[in-house]
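Researcher: Here's a chain I'd like modeled. Treat it as a single chain, no partners, no ligands.
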Amino acid sequence: MDTSYISALAGLAGAAIGGMTSFITTWLTQRNSIRDQHTQAQQTKLEVLFGDFINEASRLYGDALTHEQSDIAHLVKLYALLGRIRLVASRPVVDAAERTMKSLIDTYGGPNRTIAELRELATRGRFNFLHDFSEACRSELSSGWFGHRH
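Model: Modeled as a single isolated chain. Structure tokens:
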């Protein structure tokens, strides 16, 4: 075989390998960028959902401390948020949300609280009924676990 053919084939092979390497590098970079954008969007959605649950549960907890019974309709929004959490969150977050809901219902069943009793609850650290839920959410968000069912 003529040496000029060998040189030409080597040059073509080098160009093909270089082009393929460039294509693969660009493709992998783009793929990782899209995955990162999707992960960030998922995290943002979870933060909003968890925040909505915390806001609604807090509002209802304030109501429960001063009312012995609630109109069931008041609990519907929180229950809907719990349903959405069940769709996308990990088991520890769902369990913590369910415990929060139970605590809220139990609080409605208890006696009305005075300002002095509320101050005492806060002083003893028993006012933070969202602690377990908040910790489970923080753990999930920091782990990068988004929507992967166990």
